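haha ok so turns out i had the wrong file open the whole time. this is the CORRECT one, sorry everyone. sequence first:
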Amino acid sequence: MNRRTLILSVLAVGAAGFGGAAWYATRPAPTAKAPAVDSTFAQALIRPHSPILGPKDAPVTIVEFFDPACEACRAFHPIVKDIMKEHGDAVRVVIRYTPFHGETSEVAVRILEAARAQGKFEQILNYILWGQPQWAAHGKMQPDVLYKMAVSAGLDHEAAGAQMQAPQTTRILQQDLADVNTVGVQKTPTFFVNGKPLERFGEAELRALVATEVAAVKG
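then structure:
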């Protein structure tokens, strides 16, 4: 299977599974106060399949509802990494896939899941976000460019086809999209820290909320 055929087949699978997904704008400004997360939402925030960056047993968890094609997610990626570096083993990040930018977002998620199966999740994540202006510039999504970029960053092309289209990958996409709806996420990135919503969107606000939670667990 050549790359173009692979991308087209993945798009076809995505269209069948996610034809009803709407296009959402990336977050341009601070948003209104998010609703508190009650016990019925707790399970929807974190799933056993969710990718984790940082120590798995860290006492403070940032949950990020994330779209690889979102410019604001790209802008916040180094900020989140810096927060993790600042607090060391106290903080981990749980990624929840939020494919609001249509089929190309779904292809990006499938690429990330293939990368995870190959033990290259963070490596490929960093690279496709760095190269996002090339494959998602000005709203012009180019899945072929995205896939070639991932391969150039180390994704095994021979294995990726089956991994991207695996039933488990589709189930992860479906579950994450269902959880997005359950939690009420409407824009990306959306953050929760130890289950608490970031009430006012911004770098300073995220840093402050994480610092508060770290201080609380350290006593």
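The chain is about 55% helix and 10% strand.
again sry for the mixup
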